[in-house]
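Hello support,

Our group uses your service weekly, and this is the first time we've seen a run hang past the timeout. The protein is MFS transporter. I'm not sure whether the cause is the sequence or the server load. Input pasted verbatim:
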Amino acid sequence: MSGTARVEGRRDAVALAALLAGTLLAPLNSSMVAVALYPVQQDLGASLGAATWMVTSFYLAACVAQPVMGRIADRTGPRALFVGGMLLASAASAAAPFVTDVAGLVVCRSLLAVGVSTSFPCALILVRRGGGSGRQLGRIAVVNTTAGAVGPVLGGLLTDWAGWPAIFWVNLPLTLGAVAVAAFRLPGRERGPVPDGRLSGGIDILGVLLFAGGMLALLRVMLALPRVEPVTVVAAVSLLIGFVVREARYRAPFIDVTALWSHRGLVPVLSIFVLFNLTYYSAFYGLPQWFQGSLGLDPAAAGLLVLPIAATSVLATMAGSWALRVVSSERLAFLSALLLLAGVAVLLVFDASTPLTIVVPVGVLLGIPYGLGNLVMQQQMYDRAPDRLTGLVGGLFQSARYIGAILAVGLVGACAPTGPAAVGDLTTLAYAMTVVAVLVLAAVAADSVLARRRTAAIRWTALVPSAGSTRGDHHG
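Update from on-call engineer: The timeout came from a worker crash unrelated to the input. Re-ran successfully.
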């Protein structure tokens, strides 16, 4: 028995390694492209606005694809979906260097996003089948955080060495290697009872289209800020409301909003994660502009000053994996929210005279809550998700990250200074981030109270039958 257990353990470890290789591709490709935008503009003769769609199309496609892939993974098992996703990502990465315009790159980036979106929900399903090791969940969080941190540095080195096509070529060893391992090591469809009717039907295409249309309209609203486009706002609200109504009534929904709402702890953690990433990415995107506009630094130096945020977040994720063994996730979530508020509040005093000796420690302070909060909320999402919705909820968790990033792009644009004398002014953005961080802290505190009540209710429910049985035995 022990020998069989060791063999299965090694098999799961190798399978998880393949999934981790796929999982890192999403944050890696979303961050590497930042340094390739200017070379793409120069090489293909595109405008900055057109090149920016390489970034936003990836976020939008991944935001929609993550829950779709999660729902498919819940029904089919991880192997076929993950292998298919990695083959799609390989094809998109191989084709991208040969396109001749930005529109072709946007298509390739969108297909790449769909392909790599299979990894995270499949990884969660594998962890669930293996008993739900907190250490394995920690590895997933560390890989995601590390990939996002090294992406700009790796992208810069590859672009200098071989031009912008290199940020696509680098995916191929990872995707093809993951396919070779996953095809033999990943489990297929799990034998067992047939899912209930709300999961066993085909993919709700209309639900997917409503969700995608709502996200696209929301992206358009945010990118247009501070200018408001009433028609686009109405379209975004109408599409998203229509999506919720459709999914609540449809027999086999794309996203089972009824099931999500019935598991009371899921909606709060997903909502908090959106606000959390809105705050973090506002700093991540806004600070480099302030470094260049106010401190007069060049792009390379500005990138180096952002590095402490990313590097510290990796270390905080590693430390958080250990802390979760001895401290509750609710307490660590509150600590990360408090540190996030402290970090963005300090930005209120930043101006052109702020020395770099202050800027770097603040970057470290911002990195700690992101790494810790990302890990803790991933753990909460996993703990609160029912087994049958593991993949779907995992996909929604990643979608929440991308929605936060999309909103951050709009917030940074809306808070950008308008007058020449105000170039590089961070005050408006810092106030906005502080307000959102206060909301995060309040939401985390409220969720902690509700979590304690849910735990107490579950314990009471478990005790009541025992008490009834005891009274019956006594009277008998």
